[in-house]
Amino acid sequence: MNIFYLLFITVLVKYSVGKISGGPRGRFDNKNQRKPNNHYVSAHHAHFSYHPPSVINYMCRHCSHFVTYPVFHGLPPTYVYKYRESGGRFGDLLAGLALYNLGRASAEHWQYTHYYPVRSDEKCSMQVIDRKHFEETKLPCFVMSSFVARSPESFFPDSNALDITSPQIDIKPYLQHNGSSLKITREQECVLWHNTTLNKERNIIPCALLKEYSETMKPSGIPVYVWLPSTLALVTTIYVFCYCLCKRKIRKEQDPVNTGTIIGYCSTQY
Q1: Does this model's pTM top 0.70?
Q2: Does residue 238 sit within a domain?
Q3: pLDDT the model gives residue 112
Q4: Largest CB tally within 10 Å, which of 188, 204, 210, 269?
Q5: Residue 86 in domain
Q6: What is the pLDDT of residue 252?
Q7: Residue 161 lies in a domain
Q8: Separation of alpha carbons 266 and 136, rounded Å
């Protein structure tokens, strides 16, 4: 029984490791990995699946008609899932911004726009503003790359540029686990800032629009960190129960039925 138990545990652990490193249905398996760029991430924990509509139609609170917004129809990079499942205060908004940015980039000259020349002097942030509320969070500038003004020369091929679709981009320094997710309303505006030494750029987006984008990512099942410990605990309990039952049965079979001395007819009695 020990051999079968160890074999089962080995298979279970290997399967779970594959799910953790690959995401649901092997979304980030090794054959889809690109060569490391300026950023690197060694593990993926994707508990959401992406279900993009053909377009997103949204009407802002001051508009009289719906406006069509572009949608990214490729395989979202890992950092989008990281934002969506982070549970941080700005997780939904940043996941929505990342998807909106990918959609905008894919609607333009995609062979150029999905590369972003990272600058050492740039800093980016997002402010959430309404009449009674103000919050701000930092973000990597490539997440809003399609909103950054660029010179024609910056679209030329550059080996040092960051591919915003790379599954190996690391956003851990920007992930914040600071309380419950921010409640998003139609009155809120998300202000994107791109600051460099000589220039400041500002773009305003309805926060509810970013929420629409983030909701195209749906939960894809029970996370590994929930079902794996439960499964291991159940298997261990079954094993211990069966082991104790077998030991008790063996001990019972080894005990003699009658413990008294048997004297036959030919025995010599003294």
Answers
A1: no
A2: no
A3: 77
A4: 210
A5: yes
A6: 62
A7: yes
A8: 103
DSSP state of 33: P
Which amino acid is residue 160, in one-letter code? Answer: N
SS3 call for 124: strand
Q: Which amino acid type is present at position 206?
A: P
Structure token digits, residue 246: 């077998």
Q: What is the mean pLDDT of each run of 10 residues along the chain (270 residues)?
A: 56 46 34 37 58 92 90 92 88 95 89 86 95 92 92 77 90 78 92 94 96 90 63 83 76 59 51
List the domain range (segments joined by +) for residue 84.
28-119+141-182+207-225
The single-letter code of the amino acid at 70 is P
Q: Is residue 124, in this structure, part of any structural domain at all?
A: no
Give Cα 60 to chain centroid, integer Å: 29
- Provide the terminal-to-terminal Cα distance of the chain, rounded to the nearest Å: 51
Give the other-Cβ count within 10 Å of 108's Cβ.
13
Query: What whole-number distance in Å separates Cα of residue 142 and Cα of residue 204?
Result: 17
Beta 123-130 vs 189-195: how paired, if at all?
A: antiparallel
The first and second tokens of residue 84, run together, are 């969506």
Q: What is the identity of the amino acid at 269? A: Q
As a whole number of angstroms, the distance between CA 225 and CA 34 comes to 27
Q: Please count the structural domains in the chain.
A: 1
Which residue(s) pair with 50 in the sheet? 217
CB count within 10 Å of CB 118 equals: 16
